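PT: before anyone asks, these are the final sequences, not the draft ones from last week. 229 residues across everything. Please model them as a single complex and drop the result in this thread when it's through.
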Amino acid sequence: DGGITQSPKYLFRKEGQNVTLSCEQNLNHDAMYWYRQDPGQGLRLIYYSQIVNDFQKGDIAEGYSVSREKKESFPLTVTSAQKNPTAFYLCASSIEAGLAPSSYNEQFFGPGTRLTVL
Amino acid sequence: QKEVEQNSGPLSVPEGAIASLNCTYSDRVSQSFFWYRQYSGKSPELIMSIYSNGDKEDGRFTAQLNKASQYVSLLIRDSQPSDSATYLCAVKDNQGGKLIFGQGTELSVKP
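LR: through. Structure below.
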């Protein structure tokens, strides 16, 4: 089956710990994204990657880090520097980066990881 | 700061009625627009994309785009209780290709 997988589904972290959220896609998509969603809120972009070995900060990158060593994988690390990490984390991918104004950039989402800091 | 605005709702409609969801955006040069449906506790699901002015129909869903007025809407005909969800509007940022999301409109369809 083609799609985007995220693991784990639920994650509990103690304050001061770093945790890594996994995101894998087998859609052969070039671009991948990480979003954060808080209750009753829209999606806020954390980091995105348009191509392997390259990534850019989104609107709320502080306290997070990413890597893109393989096209299929885009893991997100939530560091202890992130002040309020409890949230629903969503990974998405699109077939291409959508840089051209006329390109569409439809993004498809994984099932999400719900992170709770204890 | 580029913005996408939606009425947070909740919007309540009776079963069988037409639900109308609206979205406005600030970036006049945006060209790609999307509607996502998100059930409670789940991830967003893409249901409509629209790129040209006018209407685009897919089953019970119709997306409407008016670039001059900078709004995009989603109509759901013959609304069903299973349509109860939060609907997110997203607009592609032409600088960098990112999507900018609205906060979502909660729709409740009453049997």
